[in-house]
Write a structure and sequence with these properties.
CATH superfamily of the largest domain: FAD/NAD(P)-binding domain
Bound molecules: iron/sulfur cluster
Distance between the termini: 14 Å
Shape: elongated
Largest sheet: 5 strands, parallel
Radius of gyration: 26 Å
Helix content: 25-40%
Low-confidence stretches: none
CATH architecture of the largest domain: 3-Layer(bba) Sandwich
Length: 403
């Protein structure tokens, strides 16, 4: 194991961990491991005092790696990553060992719990020796929005966005705005309001030909002679229809658009949502939203509320001048090892992988990649490396665990 300046901090989490595990013993045991220059316990590391203490220890001891044995990373990984950052340490040089949920709360015998916790901490120490600093990047967002489909759903979303001074382009395949045949008065009213708004441009009798890019920076090609449309978000507001058996099915041309956007869809062709209750208008790709019947058959009332939700989500995430941080834990494809089977392309739910025709290999767009690791586990050639979850890091962690 390469020699590194590693600091280990074992948190008592008030009585949560301290009463069930002998944390002093863990600190003492790991202090003898090669590379560990500091091993201490603390009562409550996530408290303001705990964070100050941690930052101070990192700088005072010039730590290059940090292991925090505490709660679940789901709870405080971001907290401790931020502390590392403020102390001048790359946040990806920190590893948590979850000795609360995985040990203290489930292993009643103190002695067994201490042995188990020690193994987890050893694994984390081993793992950090293989960590590499990862760089965060950010991109400037284009605050403009494209709405595909000029029915009630699309017009409603566009009008709310226009009220917030956003520039919107509605792209509609028909010659006039409309769509909700049961409510012509409402359609007329909305179309009149749209026509009166300088923030809204309507491009009729037109369909997107190609869509590339990512949240904050999408480019929509509308046809050979048209200019490119550059926007930060895309709202899918085209409808669905009902087949002979009364089943809601995606409208004609809908699948072409979902394919172009590379959003994953369900068995009926409608976009899968980030979360059916918590994020029902967000697709699995950042910056692409669905409203109205683009999300499946819905009533007029639901259409309006979906459009309000879409507009609200865009207004709170796509803020003019804001830079969006991209995920540094992305996957990388080796051109040498890739044999172009495109399995990775099939399993990526975020549209982050594309096939390079000229090289016959796949490549990952690091801005779109969410680091889920699906592609790395599916690749039959071992050509994909999920950064921060490399085989080497996992092997080292397991070696520490099994010692
Ligand atoms: S799954 Fe692996 S070998 Fe196949 S295209 Fe993707 S990276 Fe290349
Ligand atoms: S890690 Fe996940 S999001 Fe990134 S390219 Fe692979 S499958 Fe797509």
């Amino acid at each position: 194991m390469p020699s590194t300046r590693t600091g280990v901090f074992v948190c008592s989490c008030g009585p949560n961990i301290g009463e069930r595990i002998d944390i002093e013993k863990i600190a003492e045991e790991v202090s003898t491991i090669e590379g560990v220059v500091l091993a201490e316990t603390h009562g409550l590391l996530c408290s303001p005092d705990g964070k100050k203490y941690l930052a101070l220890k990192i700088t005072e001891n010039k730590l290059e790696r940090v292991v925090i044995a505490a709660c679940s990373p789901r709870e405080h990984e971001v907290t401790f990553m931020k502390v590392c950052e403020t102390a001048g340490l790359n946040p990806f040089m920190m590893q948590m060992a979850n000795i609360r949920e995985q040990v203290a709360w489930v292993t009643p015998d103190r002695e067994s719990a201490t042995v188990k916790a020690l193994k987890l901490v050893r694994g984390a120490i081993n793992r950090t020796s293989r960590h590499k600093p990862l760089a965060k990047t950010s991109i400037v967002c284009n605050p403009e929005v494209a709405v595909i489909g000029g029915g009630v759903a699309g017009m409603s979303a566009a009008l709310i966005l226009a009220d917030a001074d956003r520039m919107i382009t509605i792209i509609d395949r028909s010659s006039s705005l409309g769509g909700y045949k049961d409510n012509e008065k409402l359609v007329e009213y909305l179309a009149e309001r749209v026509a009166g708004r300088s923030e809204i441009t309507v491009i009729s009798e037109c369909e997107p030909e190609e869509i590339v890019g990512f949240f904050g920076n999408f480019i929509i090609k509308l046809g050979e002679d048209s200019d490119e449309l550059r926007v930060g978000s895309i709202v899918l507001a085209t409808g669905c229809t009902v087949d002979e058996s009364g089943r809601a099915v995606a409208a004609e041309g809908f699948s072409e658009i979902t394919e172009m956007l590379r959003i994953s869809t369900d068995e009926n062709g409608f976009p899968n949502r980030e979360h059916n209750s918590l994020a029902p208008v967000s697709t699995l790709i950042d910056g692409i939203y669905v409203t109205g019947c683009a999300g499946g058959l819905c009533s007029l009332k639901e259409t309006i509320s979906r459009s309000e939700a879409v507009a609200g989500t865009i207004l709170s995430s796509l803020i003019p001048g804001r830079q969006v941080e991209t995920e540094p834990r992305t996957s990388v494809i080796s051109e040498t090892l890739c044999r172009g089977c495109r399995t990775c392309l099939e399993v990526c739910g975020y549209g982050a992988i594309s096939f390079l025709e000229e090289k016959l290999v796949c490549t990952v767009n690091s801005v779109l990649c969410k680091g889920c690791g699906n592609c790395a586990s599916a690749c039959p050639s071992g050509a994909i490396k999920a950064q921060h979850f490399t085989p080497d890091q996992i092997r080292y962690q397991m070696a520490g665990l099994l010692r």
